[in-house]
Amino acid sequence: MSDTTIELGQAEEAAFRERCRTFLEEHATGVGAGRAESTNDRGASLMAVAKKFQGALAEAGLAGLVYPAEFGGAGLTRAHDRIWREEYRRYPDMTSELTISHGMCLPVMNDFGTPEQKRQFMADNVAGRTVWCQMFSEPGAGSDVASLQTKAELDGDEWILNGQKVWTTLGHLSDYGVIVARTNPEAPKHAGISMFIVDMKAPGIEIRPIHQIDGGKHFNEIFFTDVRIPKSWLLGELNNGWNQATAMLMYERVAIGTGSTSGVSHPNADRLIADAVKLGTIKSPVLRQELMKLYCEETTKSLVAMRTRAEMKAGKAPGPGGSLGKLHGAKIARAMRSITSDVHGADIMAYEADDKASLLARSILTSFSANIAGGTDEIQKNIIGDRVLGLPREPAVDTKLPFKELKVGTQR
372-392, pLDDT tens digit by residue? Predict the structure, then answer.
C-alpha cells in the first residue's frame, strides 16, 4: 500500500475533500429501489447498485485509494482515505454488498498475492468489475475453522479441490473466491492448510443458495467436486494458510467493525429517534433510555473504529483489537431489534409489501446474523480476553496431533 506516514498540506486536503464531496453529491443518492427489490434476492439488486457506484468511483480516480496505481488503485495515502471516509459518512452507504470483496479479499490479495496475481485480479476487483467471496466455514468447521476438511491435492500443474463450504456470503453473485483447504493431513490442523484463488464459474462447483427467514438468499452452501485450479493460484505460502486466514479474519472484523466511514456517528440512533418523535413514541421514558444506550453504543463503536483506522494509518496490520468493533456491532444489532419494534409498534408485524415497515421487519430478521458472521460473539470475547487483555487461554488438546487422527466433522 501507499506510504502511510505522509500528511497532507491544508490546501491539498481542502482540494481533495471538495473532490470527494462533488463525487458523492452526484453519485451517493441511496440504494433506493435496490433495497426495495431485495425480497427475492437480498443481494442481487443491491450488488448492481454497488457495482455501478464503484465503477463511477474508479473512473473518478477515487477507488482503492491506498492501493498502488499499477494494480488498479489510486496510489494515494491513508490521509486521503481518512478524508474520504469522513465525507462518505454524510451520505448513504452505496457499497455494503462489496464489504467482503473489498474489505477482506482485496487487502489479503495485496498482502500475500504474487505480482502476477495482483496484476491479473486486483484492478477488476477495485473497480467492481469482478466480485469476490470468502470460503472458510464448513458444516464441521465453523468457529473452529482449522478443523476444515475440504482438501486440495496437487496434480501436475493444477490443484484438485474437493469438499464443501457453507454460509458463503454472496457466493452466488461472485466471480472469484478465496478458499482455505487442507493440503497436508499429516500435519497438525493449523499447519496443513493453504489458501487458493477459485473461479466461481469453474466446472465442478455447485452453489446452493440458502433461503432465509427474511425472504432473501444472501448465504450459500458450495460443493466442490474435482475442481481444477491453476497451480499458480496458490495464494501465499503452501501449508501456511492459517496465518493468511487469520489475517483475513482480522480484516473482516475491521471491515464489519469500522464500516466504510470515519468519525463519530450514530446513524441508527439518529434514525430511530427521528422516527420516535414523528410517531409520538418518544414520550416513553423507557424507550428514551434505550435510545440513549444505543446512541452511546454507536458512539463507542465509532471511537474504537477511529483508533483501529489510526493504527492502520501508522502502518500497523489489523490486530485482535478489531474484535472490539465487531462485538460492538453485534451488540448494536441486538439492541436494534427491540428498539425498532418499540418505536414502530404493530406496524412491524402488519405491513404492506415494500413499504418502510416491511424493510424494517426484514432488517430485524436479518440482524441475527450479526452475532455470527465474522465469528460469533463468544469467539470475539475469547480473542479479546486472550490477545487484548492477556488472560490465560483455555487448554487445547488437539493442536499438536496430525489432522488425520482428529475426530472432527465427518472424520470419525
Answer: 877 788 888 888 898 888 898
Residue 208 φ/ψ, nearest 5 degrees:
-115, 105
Catalytic residues: 252
Question: CA-CA distances (angstroms) from residue 66 to 4, 102, 203?
Answer: 9, 12, 35
pLDDT tens figures, 34-73: 554 545 566 788 999 999 999 999 999 999 999 999 999 9
- b/e 254-276 (16+ beta carbons within 10 angstroms → b): bbbbbbbbbbebbebbeebbebb
Residue from 110, 89, 1, 30 nearest 305 by CA: 89
Sign of CA dihedral 151, 317, 55, 39: positive
Element (H, E) at 108: helix 106-112
- Residue from 85, 62, 384, 73 nearest 253 by CA: 384
Displacement of CA 117 from its chain's centroid (Å) = 22
Residues 6+ apart with CB under 8 A from 279: 343, 344, 345
Stated pTM of the model? 0.84
Q: Taking the alpha carbons of 53, 78, 76, 122 in that order, is the dihedral positive or negative?
A: negative
What are the E-state strand segments in 255-353? none
Alpha helices in 37-75 (DSSP H): 44-59
Query: By the 8 A CB rule, do 103 and 251 touch?
Result: yes
* Cell 496510489 sits on residue: 75
Residues 110/64, Cβ–Cβ less than 8 Å:
no
- Rg (C-alpha) for the chain, rounded Å, is 22
Query: CA 376, CA 372: separation in Å to the nearest integer?
Result: 4
* Helices vs strands, H then E, count in the chain: 13, 7
* Domains parsed from the chain with CATH numbers: 10-130 (1.10.540.10), 134-239 (2.40.110.10), 245-388 (1.20.140.10)
The Cα–Cα gap between 409 and 210 comes to 20
pLDDT tens, 130-147? 999 999 999 988 888 999
